[in-house]
Automatic annotation (TrEMBL):
<keyword id="KW-0833">Ubl conjugation pathway</keyword>
<comment type="pathway">
    <text>Protein modification; protein ubiquitination.</text>
</comment>
<dbReference type="GO" id="GO:0051260">
    <property type="term" value="P:protein homooligomerization"/>
</dbReference>
<comment type="similarity">
    <text>Belongs to the BACURD family.</text>
</comment>
<feature type="domain" description="BTB">
    <location>
        <begin position="32"/>
        <end position="100"/>
    </location>
</feature>
<protein>
    <recommendedName>
        <fullName>BTB/POZ domain-containing adapter for CUL3-mediated RhoA degradation protein 2</fullName>
    </recommendedName>
</protein>
<keyword id="KW-0963">Cytoplasm</keyword>
<dbReference type="GO" id="GO:0004842">
    <property type="term" value="F:ubiquitin-protein transferase activity"/>
</dbReference>
<dbReference type="InterPro" id="IPR045068">
    <property type="entry name" value="BACURD1-3"/>
</dbReference>
<dbReference type="GO" id="GO:0031463">
    <property type="term" value="C:Cul3-RING ubiquitin ligase complex"/>
</dbReference>
<dbReference type="InterPro" id="IPR003131">
    <property type="entry name" value="T1-type_BTB"/>
</dbReference>
<dbReference type="Pfam" id="PF02214">
    <property type="entry name" value="BTB_2"/>
</dbReference>
<keyword id="KW-0967">Endosome</keyword>
<dbReference type="GO" id="GO:0035024">
    <property type="term" value="P:negative regulation of Rho protein signal transduction"/>
</dbReference>
<dbReference type="InterPro" id="IPR011333">
    <property type="entry name" value="SKP1/BTB/POZ_sf"/>
</dbReference>
<dbReference type="GO" id="GO:0005768">
    <property type="term" value="C:endosome"/>
</dbReference>
<dbReference type="GO" id="GO:0005634">
    <property type="term" value="C:nucleus"/>
</dbReference>
C-alpha cells in the first residue's frame, strides 16, 4: 500500500464514543505506518515522514503533544482533509506540483501555515505572486468623454465594440 493512500470516507464525529487522548511515543516507530483521520479523510503514512521536518506534525508524533484517537485507533486531526495528501507529498519529497487555481493555492497555504511547514508556505506565496504578475483582464472598458474619442476608439479596434451609455442626470447610473 502506498504512503499517500487516501480512503475518502466521511465519519460522523458526533456518533460513537468520545475520542481518547494519549501521548504518542514515536521513538522506534520510524517506518511503522500510522493511520490518520484528517477531517474525515483517511491517510496512511509513516512516522518517519511525519517527523522529517520541524513541524506541528513532528511535535505530535515525537511525544511533545497529545494526540486524539478514535476507538479503531485512527489518529484524529481536526482539519479539512482536502489538501492533506499534498502536505504529505511535500513532507516526503520537499517539493510538489502546486494547484493551478489561486484559491486552491491559498487553501493549501492556510493548511501549510497551520502545520507550520514554512517551505511549503514559501512555495505557495511565490506561486501566488507569480500568478498575480501574470494576471491579465479579460476585457477593458474605457470611459469615453467625447464623440471624437469614441470615433477614434471604434476605428482603431480590431474586435467588435459594445457601446454602453450611462446617464448621470439623476445622480444614479442608468445603462442603455
Amino acid at each position: 500500500m502506498s504512503g499517500d493512500t487516501c480512503l475518502t470516507t466521511t465519519l460522523c464525529p458526533a456518533a460513537g464514543p468520545k475520542p481518547k487522548t494519549c501521548s504518542f511515543k514515536g521513538g522506534s516507530l520510524g517506518n511503522k505506518y500510522v493511520r490518520l483521520n484528517v477531517g474525515g479523510s483517511l491517510y496512511y503514512t509513516t512516522v518517519q515522514v511525519l517527523t522529517r521536518h520541524d513541524t506541528m506534525l513532528k511535535a505530535m508524533f515525537s511525544g511533545r503533544m497529545e494526540v486524539l484517537t478514535d476507538k479503531e485507533g485512527w489518529i484524529l486531526i481536526d482539519r479539512c482533509g482536502k489538501h492533506f495528501g499534498t502536505i504529505l507529498n511535500y513532507l516526503r519529497d520537499d517539493t510538489i506540483a502546486l494547484p493551478k487555481h489561486r484559491q486552491e493555492i491559498k487553501e493549501l497555504m492556510a493548511e501549510a501555515k497551520y502545520y507550520l511547514i514554512q517551505g511549503l508556505v514559501d512555495m505557495c506565496q511565490a506561486a501566488l505572486q507569480d500568478k498575480k504578475d501574470l494576471y491579465e483582464p479579460v476585457c477593458s472598458i474605457p470611459i469615453i468623454t467625447s464623440p471624437k474619442e469614441e470615433e477614434r476608439l471604434i476605428e482603431s479596434s480590431m474586435k467588435p465594440v459594445v457601446k454602453l451609455l450611462y446617464n448621470r442626470s439623476n445622480n444614479k447610473y442608468s445603462y442603455t
